[in-house]
Prior knowledge:
Elements: E1 7-9, E2 16-21, E3 24-29, E4 37-38, H1 40-52, E5 61-65, E6 74-75, H2 77-86, H3 91-109, E7 113-118, E8 121-123, H4 125-131, E9 135-139, E10 143-145, H5 160-168, H6 170-179, E11 183-184, H7 185-191, E12 196-198, H8 203-214, H9 219-235, H10 245-264
Parallel strand pairs: 3-5, 4-6, 5-7, 7-9, 8-10, 9-12
Antiparallel strand pairs: 1-2, 2-3, 10-11
Amino acid sequence: MTETSNIRTAPTHEAVAVEQDGPVLHVFLNPSGQGATLSIAVMDDLISVLDDLHKRPEIRVLVLSSPGEDFCVGADRAEYQAALAADPTGSLLRRITDKAYRLCHALENTHAITIARLHGKVIGAGLALASFCDLRAGADTCRFRMPEVGLGLPPAWGGAMGRLVSESGAARVRELMLTCDMFDASTARQLGLLHKVVPLERLDNAITAWTRPLVRRPPEALILSKRLLAGYARADRTADIALLDSHLLTAQLNQTMGRDSAASR
Length: 265
């Protein structure tokens, strides 16, 4: 890094990497490039980064991306299975899935404007995480999917159902959740899941086209606008049952894995 770049690398967590460029914080999922899941370690590190922003008002924009082939292919089901094997009561699994809610809540409520830089596959929990960002830009080669029902699970990661419905409308979200169909970047743009679609080689330019004017805006106006928009979005979710998601997911996984175990005997 050169001094003129104004970029400095913050302490690297195990599962995310952080670079600060003035008032812009770049957060990279799975910086080693090995895997693209929202593991427990990734969630813990993201929550830590977001919690730390409370002490860093100088950070105006947070850009969430991944250096791997895909942005994120979903939650780590192997960790869910291991948690249930270690604690059949489901208590450990509920604590893990509660992290997803805390992460999405922190992302929605941080003072920084959050931007998702999406490429490759954006699936399940990866799509849920991106949906809680304020702005979303994706490469035209992105592929999206909500696979939970096909896996025998409720779409109950991080309270995403309410957020997706408020962002894109119940009718289309219902169709994509129930059919588990893959959809492309153009469809995501029509749904409002993407605000910009560009060729992959222009994706960084698209992100910069947002960050440059954002950091020039009066911070109080940005924060207040974000709070107002988040408030209206939550008003659409007056019957939001996201706090029950960890219990729903744990109960269903217990049933599903119990059947799988019986069938293997």
